[in-house]
Design a protein that fits this description.
By secondary structure, the protein is of the alpha/beta class. The protein contains eight helices and 15 strands. It folds into two domains: about 130 residues, Rossmann fold; about 100 residues, LytTr DNA-binding domain (OB fold (Dihydrolipoamide Acetyltransferase, E2P)).
């Protein structure tokens, strides 16, 4: 199992990696000190498991889990300093959790759970139900910040500042009144976990940023945003736009 450790404490990362060396089935392919760097490299590393600290600056472990496309999500083991009572919800919904400081016997139990949950291993009905509950929990959570990349910098953009998001051959881009930025998040994640509304296969729009709708003869439309951008609306998605504005 290819694994990534994400924790803002270097000592905690090193201790966990040292403990994982006792398990030949686990290959730690990377460590990251924050969620943004992990998200940037996650697809390339093709990890099957994330050991993910919950409390980290800027973007928490829970928020990072919420940013990962569920269709390609690795198994996630939360690592946390919360006490046992605060972890009851995670026990029901997460793949697993480890309580800091990590106990070797508890880690062994977690590795066993991971092996049972991997797609290559047939899930029991109970496992499938827990995984479905976990994915439902993540889907219900809304994103707070969108990590974007611009000129060797990472910019955290608030959802309310986004006018629209689009995808092309170079990736996914979010546009604000101050510029356009690349993000590692997929349109599917942005659609599922934010108020952005899909208007076209390749476009999402913030309905609060729409200033004008031009109707087309083919049953579609063109949206004009407050900054002057033009977005196509296909017939398939026009109904939701019209319903929002009571058209």
């Amino acid at each position: 199992m290819r694994a990534i450790i994400v924790d803002d404490e270097p000592l905690a990362r090193e201790e966990l990696q040292e403990m994982l060396q006792s398990y030949p089935e686990i290959e730690v392919v990377a460590q990251f000190g924050n969620a943004i760097e992990c998200l940037k490299h996650l697809k390339q590393l093709q990890a099957e498991v994330l050991f993910l600290d919950i409390e980290m600056p800027q973007i928490s472990g829970l928020e990072l889990a919420n940013m990962i496309d569920s269709d390609n999500a690795p198994a996630i083991v939360f690592v946390t300093a919360y006490d046992q009572f605060a972890l009851d919800a995670f026990e029901q919904n997460a793949v697993d959790y480890l309580l800091k400081p990590i106990d070797s016997e508890r880690l062994c139990k977690s590795i066993k759970r991971l092996k049972e949950r991997l797609p290559s291993i047939k899930q029991t009905e109970a496992d499938a139900a827990v995984n479905h509950s976990y994915q439902t929990m993540l889907k219900e959570q809304q994103l707070r910040l969108i990590p974007c990349y611009y000129q060797q910098r990472v910019k955290l953009i608030r959802l309310e500042d986004i006018e629209h998001a689009s995808s092309d051959i170079s990736g996914v881009h979010v546009a604000t009144e101050n510029g356009t930025y690349h993000t590692q998040l997929t349109l599917k994640v942005l659609e599922d976990k934010s108020p952005l509304l899909r208007c076209h296969r390749q476009h999402l729009v913030n309905v609060e940023a729409i200033s004008e709708i031009s109707l087309e003869d083919n049953g579609g439309a063109v949206l004009f945003t407050k900054s002057g951008a033009q977005l196509p609306v296909s017939r398939r998605y026009f109904k939701a736009i019209k319903e929002h504005f009571g058209l």
